[in-house]
Amino acid sequence: MVDRNQNRDIFINENKLYKTFLKERGIKSFRHLSKMKFGKITSSEMKDLDIIDHIFTVSDSLSKLAHEYYGDTSYWWVIGWFNKKPIDNLYNIGDTVHIPLPLEEVLYYAERENG
What we know:
It is a single chain. The chain has 115 residues and is of the alpha+beta class. It is built from five helices and four strands. The strands form two sheets. The chain has a two-stranded antiparallel ribbon. Helix 3 (62-70) packs across helix 4 (76-83). The longest helix has 10 residues, at 16-25.
């Protein structure tokens, strides 16, 4: 399975406030991850994908849709990335959510580096 964090930079926060906060809790450090980095899909590549339109309902979530269409909840981020709405709260009841297929091809586009 692809790790959605593999292309993210890791930072250790050196801010005095964090050091105090961590010391009080007996923690040496914790990591901050940079913004997720994704590739881009060209219009010609978009033609190679099958896109299923799903109407967002009350009981939907990105992880539920990922399970339904990909068989794995951990690919929720693929649907969020493709629709440019990375969290459930950005979807309204009745919104059309585009589900790109096949998953392997979509993952290739999402994970490649674009210059």
